[in-house]
## 1
Amino acid sequence: MREIILDSDGLRGILAEIFSNGGSFPFKALGGSMYPALRNGDVLLVEAIPATNLALGDVVVFRRIDGGLVAHRVVAKALRESQWRLSVRGDTRRDAEDVPEDNVVGRVVAVKRGDKLMQPPTSSRRIIGILRYKVLLLLQWATRIIRK
């Protein structure tokens, strides 16, 4: 596979063309924030999806403010001022990031690891990831109450 480096505008244009034709695009995962569900070097197949159709536990690719693309799990979703906002977090991370729907590139629909093509990580790890995040929120809330 040949790698191409694009600026944000170039990437947006290419993705819009791919998605408007019902296509998907490969995204190479780098780093360990989603380990063990996703591993460094996995190739993720990403398809466009409206934010309204995303579910808790879905793995999404989104654009950060600096233009970089990141794959993290949806741990919360809320409609604020007529726009969907997602809370996403890597499975190995404690803190979630707030992502506006305009920054969501798509949902991971398949993972290629070596010669194997697998379904995206939606097993018990997904549920454990969501529960872990909710427990962390509860502990933060409890800590604030106790300190008062």
## 2
Amino acid sequence: MKENIDKIIYKLLILGTFLLISYGAVDQFIGESNIFKIDKVIISGCNLIELDSIENQFSFIKDKNIFSLNVDDIETKLENYDFIESAKLIKVYPSIIIIDIIEISPIGIYKYNNNNLLVDSNSNGFLCSSNISSSIHVPEIKIQNEINFENIFNTHQYKTIKQIYNTNPKLFYQIKSISDMNDKILINTQMSKISFNKAHYILQINHLNKLLMHSDEYQNFNYIKFSHLDIVVNERGSI
């Protein structure tokens, strides 16, 4: 019986030694082999961010061993960039890295004194260059009196744009600008004008959405305004 146990222990020692040697050999091969050195980095999803800035920041990735690359660390660094909502790094063995970037979805831009502030639906604001502001098409938020950037999210203009963005994307993408005058919120679309009352704009937007559900050709309206909660429209053919 004792001889059998000794044989089993001996075989286990032999097997363990073999596995350790094999693991060391494989680990050394992976570490030294050019096969697993990253030779290509593909970056997708850059529209607001300059691609060159991402390539330069993470140029160190090339020639690193794909097995030793710290994925979490790189994703965290990417998500600290302005305009980036999330980032995913994908390893394609043996030697390719894909960086998939999801940027913020801006819903408006506020311009003053040669500054441009992009805003999203989560009350985040990002200063951007004139090149970026001219390359994207979102409604311009116009405010009569200059305000601090952080106060933009308390304006009726921002709240109205956000409500339309969340409830009627089709209308949202037609909006060119939004402003206010006294107790009115004024929206210019590509073909029409819409006027809301500041005290009732959410209910009025809901009513407008119902109206536009029954009219795919709302561009035919010269203007749409509200008398309290009643909708008043003027069609182009009636002018």
## 3
Amino acid sequence: MKLELLLGAAGVGVIFSCTISSLSSLLRTRKCGLPQVYVDEDGISTEELTTKFTTKTPKIAIGILSCLGLAVATSLAILGTLGRTDDSLFIEDWLNVGSWVDFTVHFRKRNIC
């Protein structure tokens, strides 16, 4: 049981460390504002092309699936807490909920429609 707990805690730590760059870019975006056009080493896109480009459909799909994952993980953790499941993964279930919360918050902070 300690191995599963250790692996679950390590998973939460890895997921949290992956969101650090998102949080730092969020703070930069709030301070400096969003760029109006895309710029990289190949050149600058026009405003017309920038407004035509959309990632709305994949973002909606990811948002729905992340909320569903959070709902399922929370339901399993609550059922495990109430003793209505046969597993003994109390802490692991709540660590899983923490991972889904972190993922959902990460997605919502990066989601700019």
